[in-house]
Amino acid sequence: MPDGIELRVEPYDGPVAQSLIAAVQQEYVERYGGPDDAPVDPGEFAPPYGCFVVAYDGAEAVATGALRRAEAAHGEHEKRTGQRDENWPDWYAEYMAAEQSGKGLPQ
To answer: Per residue in 27-54, pLDDT tens?
Structure first.
């Protein structure tokens, strides 16, 4: 990590996170013509099942990152396909293996 960069876990719905998320949404509008309108549950990014991290360069918030449970992320896939996937852990394992090996991703 570069000198001076500090990572802090912060709430997804906190003012710093929301400011950075708004900036990313504006970037999506400029690049793709619209924001990412996928629904987000801030609770998915709260401990103990997830976290939202803000990177600071001195006093300035400069980047974000987040982790959440794989099941929640796969639930979005199910919403898009309109089908419940009881086998999501196998799908996710396949997805991770394919991504790491450079093979095509599973459908």
So the answer is: 999 999 999 988 888 988 888 778 899 9
Query: For residue 89, what are its two tokens?
Result: 């852990």
Nearest to 74 by CA among 64, 61, 87: 87
Residue 51, both tokens: 């976290």
pTM of this prediction? 0.62
Specify the residue for token string 């449970």: 69
The sign of the dihedral angle between the CA atoms of 7, 30, 79, 98 is negative
- Closest of 1, 104, 8, 105 to residue 56, by C-alpha: 8
What is the spatial distance between Cα 9 and Cα 11, in angstroms, rounded to a whole number? 7
